[in-house]
Prior knowledge:
Layout: H1 3-31, H2 40-45, H3 53-71, H4 76-94, H5 110-113, H6 115-138, H7 144-169
Amino acid sequence: MNNNLFFPSLWRFIGIYLVQVVFLHQVSASLGSYFNIYLYPLFIFLLPIQLATPYAVLIGTLMGYMVDFAYGTPGVHASAGAFSGYARAIVFYTFAPKGGFSGKELLFVPAYFGWQLFVQAISIFLAAHIFWYFSVSYFTFVYVGAITLKTLASWPLSMLFVLLYIALFNPKI
Length: 173
């Protein structure tokens, strides 16, 4: 990642992390155990498109470990972050333009791809992240009903905050 992309990503990392652990953790705690809000997967999604998948997995794991440290959930968010770093490439490939990315698109954001494509991609990405998180959290498929309910309850709230973030900050770099 060159310097033109490093510093905006660093500031995004710090900002999203602080919002996640200071504000959204408290909001989620007051809403109850079924309603969790996760903004930090957006950071993984907003890494530069050309970033290799192993680096995205490492960065996602680091973000997850930092969230785990703040939440007191050792390894659960790190696992979800690593999964998201890997799943990101699959989602990008699925929604890539015909002929692939041109290199002019730095991030997968509405400024380059439009709102409809962005919302479709981030919806699938975020749903997969949240489902993975709750699956690892319970670590057994005996609770598949609770995993599904928590995913369905958390996903719309998380999407709301993701879309608010994108609308407010409109990242292009």
